[in-house]
Please model this.
Amino acid sequence: MSEKITLSVIKADVGGYVGHSSIHANLIETAKEKLSIAAEKGILIDFHVTRCGDDLELIMTHEHGVDAEDIHKLAWNVFVACTEVAKKLKLYGAGQDLLADSFSGTVKGMGPGVAEMEFEERKSEPVIIFMADKTASGAWNLPLFKIFADPFNTAGLVIDPTMHEGFIFEVVDVYEQKKITLSTPEEMYNLLMFIGAIRRFIIKTVYRKDGMIAASASTQKLSLIAGKYVGKDDPVLVVRCQAGLPAVGEVLEPFAFAHIVEGWMRGSHNGPLMPVAFYEANPSRFDGPPRVIAAGFQLCHGKLIGPRDLFDDPAFDGARRRANEIADYLRHHGPFEPHRLGLDDLEYTTMPQLMKKLEHRFIPE
Ligand code: F6R
Ligand code: MG
Ligand code: MG
Model:
């Protein structure tokens, strides 16, 4: 019998503890309470609540499909309830990512980040949920390319006949609100031309050529929704693994290289994305450097068996050490590019206000 289930990861920063470095346990508890009520009522099959830095992460399984109003409303209500708790404790930036006054059908475009996929649960269904803090949507472009299109990363692309055909990438232009579908390996160079521009072109979904969904990423850009800087997107990503898809180890492998992403202090700096164990996902140094955690689950009739803390492995120590070295090196640049983002990239920060203030002081040279 086939079982169609939906895996929804919906996240928001609704209050930091201390500053933007982490989250208070009461928020996690409140979210768990609310989601257990939903599970008892049968709205959810199962759920897991966690956090990465100051972001509250709701991992949910259900049978309502993607973009389901009931599920989005549930997540929104959880974030509202957690905001109340954050306000009571005067936590930092309470309700930060709730950009709308009330719920209207979907959390999309309202602040929270969403990665969802509906699929038939396979005989065994290993999934990895990546969650990042202090970085922007687009941070997954490089690892997703490596996982699904780089034979130097994913041995299965060469060795496993079921992967030989390659994969299809759906890429969103977040500035123009358009999307394009590109097929690898044939269109690899076209794909790279777009996804190398991580601020504008963001990989949203990856499919196998037989149509099977393999990965889904959050693509919301808080700055474009709010028209100003309100915090970083802190994206999430869901990847299915094994048996004709990249193996767990192939999916984790790109993170052994701490690639440079935008975010970090005031969302205005480039820095390395450091893979860490759950307990180390508390970006403190210069509000960073950016972090990523990987939660592994086996799905069992929609139940989330797990998580396994997949970066809790000394094999990622090298990446962490390297990330710290890169962080030191970049920090020495202080307010200079390329540590600080370029002027165009600072468009949605407080920088334009400052520029405006000094505009009249410029005279012809
Ligand atoms: C980055 C982030 C922090 C804040 C910084 C200033 O995503 O959230 O680095 O930008 O701590 O915060 P405010 O302006 O709230 O004092
Ligand atoms: Mg915050
Ligand atoms: Mg955050």
